[in-house]
Write a structure and sequence with these properties.
This protein is an alpha+beta fold and about 400 residues long. About 20% of the residues lie in helices and about 35% in strands. It is elongated.
Length: about 400
């Protein structure tokens, strides 16, 4: 358009003529219309105010983008038109939390089941009526204080058990590293006073009235001191009914690198601080003569062997090794037997052992454990070391 006064060409957005200064009569209407059009298109020429600014914010675009997600949850109204259900942030958080909680609880349950020896799949809080549930199980800490699960009364005073020009052995304490540890350890400090390496083992060890089979095999370098232990199997102590350890007897053997004996201790007796006595276990008496008593505790079976469980008490003043001879089952001769553990019974002691029979031998006779009606054997005793025979029970019979 042109200025009405001087005829100069004016742009639509010129409010005044640049030549004569006259006001453009069309300016307000034109500029308002243009502003409204631009505002509706989301492109304001000037700042249209806070409301228009909000409309153009990318937050709205994010919502539209979420709506287009293929994994979005969709519901339906009464007229079956689909409607988008916006993301429930609280519900999503709950789901994530639930998954984490289930995972953590599942791992904890799996760990507890593994410790308890059972894993239940697909159960619904069902508890077997014959399974004991410990509502408040004892806590366990790796900071073991020497009184966890193993009877805390079984304590000893630190003492030197054996000292010679070759060796010095000091008993320190009893330890047991928790409910699932298989051994209770009598900790030893072993000093090698020589300029040669030697090996230390035990012999003829007993706890209270019973011969036991602890583990000790310590190799001590020349001139060094080693911490090791006389390790007692907890299951063996429990089978013998031993909870209160009152006395331990043992002897030590030193051997060189060629496993030749260097030295051997006399019988060493160690008293604990525990004076409480356990009752002796009892089986069916099948022999009692000449200071030797035999009690029968039944038949065990594993994959390879049947074992006749017997307790031998040596009430003589002579240490003896015993062996089962002339064994027969249902009058069928069994020519392959062995005792586990070996039957070495010191004077005044008892030992629970198993006369083991190879299963293949019984299979040749078509004998199953349910078919066993009669067992016969004799027990022979020989002196420690010399193997001189000093006892023979003659035929001992067990019948059903």
């Amino acid at each position: 358009m042109y200025c009405e006064k001087c005829g100069k060409f004016l742009e639509n957005d010129d409010r005044f003529c640049s030549s004569c200064g006259k006001q453009n009569p069309d300016y307000p209407a034109q500029s308002t219309e243009t502003a409204q059009q631009n505002y509706q298109n989301g492109q304001p020429e000037i700042n249209p105010g806070y409301q228009g600014y909000q409309t153009a914010q990318p937050y709205q675009n994010n919502i539209n983008y979420q709506t287009a997600q293929p994994e979005a949850e969709v519901g339906f109204t009464e007229n079956n038109s689909p409607v988008y259900k916006g993301p429930d942030i609280d519900r999503t958080a709950r789901r994530i939390g639930l998954k984490v909680a289930v995972l953590v609880c599942g791992m904890a349950a799996l760990g507890a089941a593994a410790i308890g020896g059972i894993i239940s799949i697909g159960s619904h809080d069902e508890i077997s009526p014959d399974r004991d549930i410990d509502v408040d199980p004892p806590s366990y800490s790796y900071d073991y204080n020497g009184e966890c699960y193993f009877n805390p009364a079984n304590k000893i005073d630190e003492q030197v058990l054996w000292e010679t020009e070759n060796v010095k052995i000091t008993a320190k304490q009893f330890t047991h590293d928790g409910e699932y540890d298989s051994y209770a350890d009598l900790e030893l400090l072993i000093e090698n006073k020589t300029d040669k390496e030697f090996t230390l083992t035990e012999s003829n060890t007993s706890v209270n009235e019973y011969m036991v089979n602890p583990s000790l095999y310590a190799v001590i370098p020349a001139g060094k001191t080693l911490s090791d232990s006389l390790a007692f199997e907890v299951d063996e102590l429990e089978e013998l009914g031993i909870d209160n350890i009152n006395e331990i007897q043992t002897s030590f053997i030193l051997k060189d690198k060629e496993y030749e004996e260097i030295d051997r201790s006399d019988n060493i007796v160690m008293q604990t601080r525990n004076s409480e006595k356990d009752e002796l276990i009892e089986g069916v008496g099948i022999y009692d003569s000449e200071g030797i008593k035999i009690e029968y505790f039944g038949i065990d079976k594993d994959e390879d062997d049947y074992s006749i469980k017997v307790l031998v008490t040596n009430n003589t003043d002579t240490d003896m090794d015993f062996s089962a001879e002339n064994v027969s089952v249902n009058d069928c001769v069994i020519d392959y037997v062995f005792s586990y553990p070996g039957l070495s019974v010191s004077a005044g002691k008892r030992q629970l052992s198993r006369i083991c029979i190879n299963n293949e031998k019984l299979e040749k006779y078509d004998i199953d454990v349910s078919d066993i009606k009669k067992i016969e054997f004799s027990l022979e005793g020989t002196l420690f070391e010399s193997y001189e025979k000093v006892f023979d029970s003659g035929k001992v019979t067990i019948t059903k």
